[in-house]
Amino acid sequence: MKKEDLPSILPVFPLSNFIIFPRTTVPLNIFEPRYIEMIDNSMKTNRLIGMIQPKKSGQLKKPDLYKIGCAGKITSFNETDDGRYLIILNGICRFKIMDELNNDNLYRECEVKYDDFLKDLNEKSEEIKFSDLNLIFQNLKGLFKKQGYEINWKEIEKQSLDQTINTLSMASPFSLEEKQVLLESKDLTIRKDRLKEILNTYIVDNFNNKTLQ
């Protein structure tokens, strides 16, 4: 997708503890009327929606939003017998919210800019040594196991390195704020370092917990 194909007005889907990255794919189960309406309208136009994390401030029905999210394209759409939508979303490019629009829709729309993240549109993968990932892998495997998360590591290991880091950042049992830090990391090298830092805090916490018992 080219920069000029990206819309300046984007419907946004606030979802806590949920991020997507460019060139990653996620399934979504849509059942709330406002998001059914959003998908209906999106399917009639460019099939693009913005995934964004809500903050813990603002109103319950309309929380404040983080400024950085990621636009995704609906690449698969199915409707269930009970009226839910099962979609597959493919991450395209991160964006920054400039302003929120007042609209008559059930869902929220924002004016967005992509300028800080145009590198997301490049097909070229960034190079990272696999040895860099080994330590992260080991620590993550321990953390996932402890938290009862099931991950198909064999499948992940088949992916390119950038997909691997992004998939692990998305699937990890981290907090909303930690996931936002990973999403906002400008490039893969920074994201890898942040991932390592976040993991280290969990390992230190686990170690401290053990010594306290």
Order of helices and strands: EEHEEEEEEHHHHH
- Largest beta sheet: what is the strand line-up? 1-3-6-7-8
Find the count of extended strands (DSSP E, 2+ residues).
8
Provide mean pLDDT, rounded.
86
Question: Strand portion, in percent?
Answer: 25-35%
Overall shape: globular
Structure class:
alpha+beta
Unreliable runs: none
Strand count, sense and barrel status of the largest sheet are: 5 strands, mixed, barrel
Which CATH architecture of the largest domain would you pick?
Roll
Number of domains: 2
Helix count, per DSSP?
6
CATH fold call of the largest domain: Archaeosine Trna-guanine Transglycosylase, Chain: A, domain 4
CATH superfamily of the largest domain: LON domain-like
Distance between the termini: 54 Å
Write down the Rg: 18 Å
CATH class of the largest domain: Mainly Beta
* Share in helix: 25-40%
